[in-house]
Amino acid sequence: MDVAAIAALAPVIPVLTIERVADAVPLARALVKGGLPVLEITLRTPVALEALQAIAREVPEAVLGAGTILAPDQFGRVRDAGARFAVSPGCTAALVEAAEAARLSFLPGIQTVSEAMVLAERGFTLMKFFPADAAGGIAWLKSVAAPLAGLRFCPTGGIGAETAQAYLSLANVACIGGSWVAPREAVAVGDWGRIERLAAAASKLKRP
pTM for the full model? Predict the structure, then answer.
């Protein structure tokens, strides 16, 4: 499944930083049950790969991605752990080549028009816009819609329930990434019902 098809599955991709392996499966189940099947597990904790493996094994209906990919050798490791796509906050030529070698769908990150043009030359038509809110947010996306016609984005960073729909109303936004659907305090106490409700609300957000 290519990254555009993955992005089409739900309007919101939860961006998850998992601190305890024991939380991984119930967290994934709550999000999927709420209607958000595409999950990004960030490689920001020592248990991230183990959490990825656990979800892949126990929640097969989840479409798993690995985020915060910074080095070429991470692609093979996350693929073997069960990831179906990889996400990076930025991009380099080495990362593009590693993604191709690993045969893993890749959502590279950009922050400027020039970066988007470089990736477009490599055949990418969907990119992560990060950090979205700090880098211009909705105003930036509106401004680049005409000159970067044909390109679509997954804005991530600083987006919450209050601004999610405004982002998703833009024609050049394929989906958004966010962590508000899995609040740290809810995960800490195992309030999976609250997370499922937040996911259900996010799954109902409209795209053009």
Answer: 0.97
